[in-house]
Amino acid sequence: xxxxxxxxxxxxxxILGITFLCLIVNLPSSQKVSFHWGKINFDHTFYRPDFSxxxxxxxxxxxxxxxxxxxxxxxxxxxxDVDTTKLSSTEVVSAxxxxxxxxxxxxxxxxxxxxxxxxxxxxxxxxxxxxLPGVEDINQAINLIGRTAQLSFRGEDSKVxxxxxxxxxxxxxxxxxxxxxxHLVKSTVxxxxxxxxxxxxxxxxxxxxxxxxxxxxxxxNKRIAIFLDDIPVTYPTVQNVIPDGKAVINGQFDIKxxxxxxxxxxxxxxxxxxxxxxQTTLGATLGKDTIHKGVxxxxxxxxxxxxxxxxNYGFFGMISVLSLFIYGLITLTLYRLIPITxxxxxxxxxxxxxxxxxxxxxxxxxxxxEEIRDGKPWNIAMELGFGKAWDSIKDANTCTIITGLILFxxxxxxxxxxxxMVRGFALTLIxxxxxxxxxxxxxxxxxxRVLAKKNNQL
Amino acid sequence: xxxxxxxxLFLIISLTxxxxxxxxxxxWQFKLSSDFTGGSVWEVQLTKDxxxxxxxxxFTDAKISLRDFQFDSKKxxxxxxxxxxxxxxxxxxxxxxxxxxxxxxxxxxxxxILGKELMQKTLVAVALSSLALLLFIxxxxxxxxxxxxxxxxxxxxxxxxxxxxxxxxxFFGAELDSLFVTALLTTLSASVxxxxxxxDRIRELRQKNFRLEWENLANLAVSEVIVRSINNSMTIxxxxxxxxxxxxxxxxxxxxxxxxxxxxxxxxxxGVAIPLxxxxxxxxx
Lengths: 458, 285
What we know:
The structure holds 2 protein chains of 2 kinds. Chain A is α+β, with helices and mostly antiparallel strands. Chain A has 11 helices and 17 strands.
């Protein structure tokens, strides 16, 4: 038995600690345990401890559930082409942001918690990607996203006074004045000459002018709320009867938000015209089937792999299977913590990096064998094996990382792939390589230093 | 072990594989999925016993021509050109009138622009990877014949994988989709991964005995790393084979592509990359 010094023992214990922590993170979120034996009745549901703590007034909370991508969870994905040709290049950026905000608001209204709205630039063409996990009715989603913004003016019901949340807000303003977006001729940003603050001017058509005059008469000294897509934008108090069809919304704007609101009102819809390029719906059953079969295939592969390693390298093979287990735990933990959305190509990237994790061990063990054949003492041969194999491991993995980075496209270069699928694969591959170098070299080496005995044969 | 004396054999194997690939690529090209061509894929799970004709009639009535129609125990998978939202809604309605409880498993439309972009970008990614790896390996080994050989071996694998998929597409209906692009690029990195390990051993041996002929060095290096190469490939092959045999429909062709890539990559380190290095060294003398 090689002498184990206290530093090596500490490293060993640290590795065990990390493994234990990762194990806890990966427990199912709740597990019911019950058994009855004679008079003993045991019924208890165990909960995974939450990953939340407090530093001063800062509350830290993390949801540890694995996130599944569209291809696994099912749902709808829409890709739009955004027409920016009518805008000058200086206006495009803010218009795109406003478009994104607009669509996000609509999607949130739809009640999807993990919806994802992304702007991408594809060789000069602006694209908008909307991912709606769990949404199966794509027509509803398309209509929701593409529809014209609903503008409405609603009068106050003075009996309801509390108007803080949007639910009570809608109750506080139940009286539709009949004015909507179609009555609007245009909207402009103006600067109020008195307090030089930005305000949004509205100009109504003939019918709108009449309706607006009536509304301001009915609600004189009361409030009228302006709703956009059923969300209150502002609720000014009516100070005069306005007969000329010109109104001003003032008060709480800075120049940016005034411009944004005015743009939304002007378009009557989205700030930029969008056309649908592609739409995808995946039923959840297909995803469940893929996960189920993938897990079985992965387990079968792992068992064969473990048998192969133990058959070939005996005790050392067992240690490398153990560090492979730690590799899997750390990877899953990071997926939960970062969090990485698990997609199908991502899982394949993960499985592939398992292969590469074992590769480091095979390289080391073969080196070790060579040194033993050269007649080196056992523990020196082991350290030499690790030292010499390190060069190859480093160079070979650098090459994989280079390809991984080109696939991941960290700077979002438009001439490379920007699709989420390819990038998800690349991210899990790169992450896998770094963790596999840690477990395959560092963890295996320290486990061997403490656990291996001289008579363990390769 | 004098493996390098088999160089003529390696040459024959590689040339055969490359020319079969070239033949298939020229004659049959690829069976492109809707990722590339643009189009719609519609998969539905039926609850009633409908005949293939019933469903085909919906499409002929709507004047939409079907490109592909797979029908298997109440599960229909249909492929057709891009249609607009109204046409889709009427398809839904017509199918509902035949089977009111059917469920949609998948509906996907891809604009052909997307496909074109994907192809161009993949080529750019391959070119960029080749260049980056050539520079990295060339500078790492302070000898660009290593870099060029490794990259050529890698492109050899990529070409054979493309050819294999052209054949699989022609005979078994395997489609080239965006997942295949990922598999192709992984093959590139796995191939180089293996080659670099072997090159590394040549470099190490050369430091110890720099009087030795390149061919002897190569033989020595290959015989020292071959067990590792085979064992390592076996581990990846186990995982992938499990996915090919047991995995779902989506996984099958993707895993098979990776499997072909890994097997090719293991062979090409010894069979292509090192013979190429020897060729460069010989022509320099």
